[in-house]
Write a structure and sequence with these properties.
About 25% of the residues are buried. A hairpin with a 2-residue loop joins strand 44 (about 855-880) and strand 45 (about 880-905). The longest helix has 19 residues, at about 670-685. The protein has 14 helices and 50 strands. It is mainly β. The strands form 8 sheets. It has an 18-stranded antiparallel sheet that branches. Strands 10, 12, 13, 16, 20, 21 and 22 form a 7-stranded mixed sheet that branches. It has a 6-stranded mixed sheet with strand order 24-23-26-32-31-28, with no helix packed on it.
Length: about 1000
């Protein structure tokens, strides 16, 4: 039997946890732990049976070994016996972890015997920590002093170019780095950022022509420390600060235990930020500032706006020279307090980075302020196959492998990176001696010059280096090609359209995974390289839209879509043609309901037949379809029969593409047909086709309206024409037909996570939609004011009808008396929306800000009123071969309108709402015109039997049209209201 002693640290389960493997004890909150040097007995031989003893046994005496103890906060693990804590003696001690260093402080506890030195090894000591309840508690502005003991600034105004200090009090955040944003309070607008700018010899580094330096870093970064309590801090209370007594060191360092007598001192947990009141803040924030701080943890999980901690600043040319005038503000001051226990283990690496063509990401840094950093990480990749692959380089930095201290089997040297998952998927490890070598990638001048087109499939050859299945690997580096295999072709190299259409919604399940394990004594990480397809869909729809307007929509869409716009020409679809493919649609139903692994010739013929039946124009120079602006509801229903549409799918870095429109029509034929049947049924209801018509029998058995419509082309005056003239409508309407343009794209994209709590970017589905509807809906309502007014009195109404009858009998048909009021209203809508399932969108991001100004949703509503008073008299006389037309017109028009435009947008200040009030002015026009036209008959058109009579043709001999007019009014005015910001302007770092 052999004896041994080992340090055992215990904490009640409710108060914390102990990890024996890493020799770490973590308290939930500050308090004591129990530490004991326990005897460990190991059985090495069978004990003999004990003999009976008549002498009474004495109880064994307790361990009285005079252990000395190192109990100190860690900076470096290099303690000596002179660093002994005089308050701890013997084999059992109860060291107290101070509240003042909760959150990130690490204490080192190790026993040793007199005459020996401490080992500073986790095999003989323990790391002690306490989490606490993190909080940013309060802040105070103080006068600047080198010793951080300046007086509190309670009143008055500071001057630009003076120096001050900001004291921020915290709890359970010791050792952690905080970000401090300085803001200027504005009443009506978004609060302004006040970035920290450094100076060299008193001069800020600015680009030529700019008033301020680059503000890429918009916050101060400082590490939370403990500092001796000031005299005016003794009465602040527990709600405003965290304080505690610790052993005072002769050298004055934080918690460094001194030899000899024990002296305690009261300390406070806080940050002190030296702030230079920079006059370069004036161009962006103004000459009078109310500065307050916003404090955040580095991961963004904890944030506090200290809005009551104001510092007033104004300009004063008599300001004196201040201590920070020459150096300016320091954005970052590196901290020196260790907060991670694993930093003291042998065999370690300090950082892991991954590089691809998009840049380099740091996915692990041992300076992360956490007790248990994440060990299972995912690195997302969006790639294609072959030449569209993506080369990935993983670097293990600051790697140290100590073979003599390494306890792993096998030793970590030459075994840091484990690639077992790659071998199962056909990759090979580079072995130059065996002839397996990974070639370097080279750019080719012939890139993208060779194209192949076959039916709807297009292939653009990319002569970059193809995919390589050879991996280059060492303890410090891993390089491999990531690719996504689509399998869009059968064994005969025919395109499998049904497989392509299976990616229409780019399901999240479409990913390949390659886990890699990186391990040393200190760290272990499993990085899952997840490969997502680079397939991209782009679609466009136009309805009743001018070509110029749609071209503008395409330009804006490309700007929002990383420069990639709509490549396919729009194709015209009409429901009349769709109804004509019933037979082909029925044949398609059975074929597409059961997709086969290969695309047979029947399906290929089906797509050809559909393309011929639709006769889809693909000429980009084809004349645009005329746009209809106004009409009745029945005309709108007819207009809905036609629309322009295109869709395209691209993959392998846009080098391969398919226009699957005919195949989509074949697959979704029944859905389109059912939708159009609903539209037709709605049209029938509007037209009253399901309502029994009234019985018109009796008298002559003819419907007067029908009779009038049949004879309205007759040039002779007749009773039916007179009846129609006297049936003046008091109210009429016209719809302003919608003009819609829609562009959309959806694909996988990697971007930073929405909450900012991870270093890793994620592969999420991006959806971009651009909508332009001008108008979205509109209507003109017209009242015949003269008709309505005269209907109020029988005599006036009789006189109006008599005037209508006389005009019909004595004058031409276009003669009229008109007093009308027209009320017009319309709603426009323009929207751009981009969302990623990982990165969110501008509405969900913390700051809601964009690098450049963009209007996300823009809508407008306008209402206008028009009053018309017209008298138009025209008479035609014909004698022999001469026709004389004499006309007189008098008119007066008045119009005015009011509109409101609203937009939700984003700029570098945040998310905002803007309003524009538009007054269209008041416009009054009057005119008097006369018309004389003399013509000679040149051709007599004979009337055919049963055909309507055609008018004779005349050659103009004399024509005169004098006109006098006037116009008065008030000009149009646009009033833009001040933006209302929905999010405060804060940088998320």
């Amino acid at each position: 039997m052999s004896d041994n002693k080992k340090l055992v640290v215990t904490i009640p389960a409710a108060k914390g946890s102990v990890d024996v493997k890493t020799s770490t004890a973590v308290l939930n909150e500050a308090g004591t732990v129990r530490a004991e040097m326990k005897r460990i007995t190991t059985m090495v031989e069978k004990l003999p049976v004990p003999a009976k003893i008549s002498v009474p046994m004495k109880m064994p005496e307790g361990d009285k070994t005079p252990y000395r103890w190192i109990w100190s906060m860690l900076r470096t693990l290099t303690f000596k016996k002179t660093d002994v804590n005089e308050a701890l003696n013997g084999p059992v001690v109860h060291p107290n972890f101070p509240k003042i260093v909760e959150g990130g402080g690490l204490g080192w506890l190790e026993p040793f015997l007199d005459g020996h030195e401490p080992t500073n090894s986790a095999a003989h000591g323990y790391f002690i920590a306490a989490r606490g309840k993190p909080a940013i508690m309060s802040a105070e502005w103080r006068e600047f002093t080198p010793n951080n003991d300046g007086k509190i600034i309670t009143a008055g105004t500071k001057k630009f170019r003076e120096s001050v200090q900001l004291h921020i009090y915290t709890r359970a955040l010791y050792g952690q780095e905080l970000r401090i944003f300085l803001m200027d309070n504005d009443t009506a607008t978004a609060d302004d950022d006040l970035p920290p700018w450094e100076r060299v010899a008193g001069e800020a580094q600015k680009e030529p022509g700019k008033e301020t330096p680059d503000d890429a870093i918009k916050y101060f970064t400082r590490q939370v420390k403990i500092m001796p309590m000031l005299s005016d801090e003794t009465s602040r209370g527990e709600t405003l600060q965290t304080s505690d007594f610790v052993i005072k060191d002769k050298s004055g360092k934080d918690m460094k235990v001194a030899t000899g007598s024990i002296t305690y001192q009261n300390f406070v947990q806080k940050i002190v930020v030296d702030v230079f009141l920079d006059d370069l803040w004036k161009p962006g924030a103004g000459e009078v500032l109310e500065i307050y701080p916003i404090v955040k943890t580095r991961d963004g999980k904890l944030s506090k706006t200290l809005s009551k901690c104001f510092l007033n600043v104004k300009e004063d040319p008599k300001v004196k020279e201040s201590p920070l005038m020459y150096g300016g503000n320091k954005p970052v001051l590196a901290g020196d307090i260790p907060t991670n226990t694993r930093k003291f283990q042998p065999c370690k690496y300090g950082m892991i980075t991954v590089e691809d063509k998009d840049g380099t990401q740091t996915i692990f840094d041992e300076n992360v302020l956490d007790f248990q950093p994440p060990e299972n990480l995912t690195y997302n990749i969006v790639a294609g196959s072959d030449t569209a692959k993506k080369t990935i380089k993983l670097s293990v930095q600051s790697l140290v492998t100590h073979e003599d201290e390494c306890t792993a089997s096998p030793k970590h040297k030459d075994h840091v990176i484990d690639l077992s998952s790659f071998g199962a998927k056909g990759y090979k490890k580079e072995d130059v001696k065996a002839g397996v070598k990974r070639e370097k990638e080279k750019e080719s001048a012939a890139k993208g010059k060779f194209e192949i087109k076959a039916n709807n499939y297009k292939f653009k050859r990319d002569t970059n280096a193809s995919f390589s299945g050879v991996i280059k690997v060492s303890d410090e580096e891993l390089e491999f090609d990531a690719q996504y295999k689509y399998n869009f072709f059968d064994e005969n190299n025919h395109v499998l359209f049904e497989r392509i259409l299976g990616y229409l919604w780019i399901p999240a399940a479409q990913a390949d995974h390659f886990p890699v394990t990186i391990q040393t004594c200190r760290w272990k990480h499993v990085i899952d390289f997840a490969v997502y397809p680079d397939i991209k869909w782009t679609a466009a729809l136009a309805f009743n839209m001018d070509k110029a307007d749609f071209d503008a929509l395409k330009t804006k869409f490309a700007e929002a879509n990383n420069g990639k716009g709509i490549k396919n020409a729009l194709q015209r679809f009409t429901m009349n043609r769709l109804e004509g493919v019933e037979k082909i649609g029925e044949a398609a139903k059975g074929r597409w309901s059961k997709p086969t692994p290969t695309l047979d010739r029947h399906n290929e013929e089906l797509g050809t037949e559909l393309g011929e039946m639709f006769a889809l124009p693909k000429d980009k120079k084809a004349a645009p379809t005329p746009v209809k602006s106004k009409g009745k509801f029945a005309e709108l229903v007819e207009l809905l029969k036609e629309f322009d549409f295109s869709i395209k799918v691209e993959w392998n870095n846009d080098t391969e593409s398919v226009d699957p429109i005919e195949d989509m029509i074949a697959k979704y034929y029944n859905v389109l047909k059912a939708g159009w049947n609903l539209v037709k049924e709605f049209r029938n209801i509007i037209h009253g086709n399901h309502t029994n018509k009234a019985d018109t029998s009796g008298d002559d058995g003819k419907d007067p309206d029908e009779f009038i419509n049949k004879n309205k082309g007759n040039p002779d005056k007749n009773i039916q024409g007179l009846i129609q003239r006297m049936q003046r409508k008091p109210f009429d309407y016209e719809l302003q037909f919608p003009k819609l343009g829609l562009a959309a794209s959806w694909y996988y994209e990697t971007m930073p996570p929405q909450k900012g709590d991870s270093k890793l970017w994620g592969a999420g589905k991006t959806v971009l939609v651009k909508l332009d509807a001008k108008p979205l809906v509109g209507i003109d309502l017209k009242w015949d004011f003269l008709e309505l007014l005269c209907r109020r009195h029988p005599i006036a109404y009789a006189i109006l009808k008599a005037v209508d009858a006389l005009l019909y009998i004595c004058a031409d048909d276009d003669s009229k008396v008109d007093i009308s009021v027209t009320l017009s209203g319309k709603i426009d809508l323009e929207a751009t929306f981009k969302h990623n399932t990982v990165g969110g969108n501008v509405f969900t991001r913390t700051a809601g800000a964009s690098e450049k100004k963009e209007d996300l949703i823009k809508g407008g509503a306008a209402v206008s009123v028009k009053l018309e008073c017209k008298l138009y008299l025209s008479k035609t006389a014909t004698a022999f071969k001469v026709k004389v037309v004499v006309a007189l017109g008098i008119g007066l028009e008045g119009s005015s309108g009011l509109g409101l435009q609203a937009r939700i947008g984003s700029d570098d200040a945040g998310l905002f709402v803007g309003f524009d009030l538009i007054f269209e002015g008041i416009k009054i026009e009057g005119y008097v015109e006369a018309k004389v036209n003399v013509g000679e008959k040149t051709k007599e058109v004979k009337k055919k039997k049963g055909a309507p009579e055609k008018p004779a043709e005349y050659n103009k001999l004399v024509e005169a049209n004098p006109k006098a007019s006037f116009e008065i009014g008030i000009d149009e005015k646009k009033i833009s209201l001040k933006k209302i910001y929905l999010t405060k302007k804060e940088s998320d770092g």
